[in-house]
Amino acid sequence: ALDIAFYAPEDAILTQGEKPFPGEENDAFFIQAQGECEVVLLDHREQEQKIRILSPGDHYGEISLLHDCPPTTTVSSISYSMVGKLYHKKFEAMLTEFPNLLLVFKQHIATYKDRKKVFLTQSLKRIPFFRRLEEATLEDLLFTLQEEKYEEGSVIYKEGEIVEQIHFLLNGTVYFYLPLRNKDGEIDERHIETLYPGSIFQMFTSVTKETTMVMAKTGSNVTVARLPIQKLEGMRDMYDDINEALQGVEELIEENSAPLEDYIPVGREDLVRSTKLSPAEKKELRTRRLFRRMKGAVIKILRMRREETKGSRLGDLLQRARMNGGGDDAGDDFNSHAIREMSDADVKVAFMSSLDKILKSLTVQGMAINRLESVVEELQANDPIASHREL
What we know:
Strands 9-16-11-14-17 form a 5-stranded antiparallel β-sheet. Strands 1-8-3-6 form a 4-stranded antiparallel β-sheet. It has a 4-stranded antiparallel β-sheet with strand order 2-7-4-5, with no helix packed on it. The protein is an alpha+beta fold. 40% of the residues lie in helices and 23% in strands. The chain is built from 14 helices and 17 strands.
């Protein structure tokens, strides 16, 4: 049986992001009986969006109960309202007795198309191993995301930590730093990337549970939505497409190691870019992607070097690389004579095409690091940020 509740004008019945404790007044499924309520959403940009007006006969609150998540909108009474409430346990009992209602509710939820939901759904689809997920799976995955706010200057995670969440940047800016020891033995944090709203990071290392090579720090007040890998793993048995996606990632990493690009950045210019790109803009995007892969390659090589040399300073590693040279074992693409004759652009192309060789040969790794010192200047010119030292 329904419980009856009365609300005065401006009373909040549900509050976005505030999950009720079991048995609380708002831990329920609601049916509007008399009066009207307003549904308001605070979107990913922290902007208020009025969704709709609820009239007698309308229902709400089912998302929070079905997905065990906080309310996705705020519902407030406009006039004096009378509502019927079905508390959580009674709601579950109803679904047990009438299982077809679950599909009805999910089909209804799929019709919601607010700005934040659209943004998060598109973000999920940008992850390479999520691109083949069914829409119904994405819909359920969406409500597993957990939001967290950080103040400016906060550390999201440090180098060397195991981070078991995929991160979606909703608003604000995040900086990536690569900690390196300078000649005095002190830690020098080198800025290597700036992420803007819409960026995604920790895609693959969260699955492989590898330690991070960079530190993520906020450049402003930030809101991040996180997808816990533990929850994703828990969905494998229920969703064949999720199981296939994770199997694909595991096989890829087992055969080739983790991809160089563990993040999908959105640049400042992307925030104002039109959807139709000119040939010059397409070329720019390809160039920026190459820069990201180059940075990823450098970080990956430094990770291997650091493990093998147990924390040697970067200067020592580069000096050792110079002493090793690039002898016959370096292969046709990266022997010392070939590198001396190459332009920076040619080195980039050869570097990427010969990545497997680089990662398998310490001599070649050393030569690659040596030659990349000149390419790093170009990375700086294309990813500047005031008051920060660049990698």
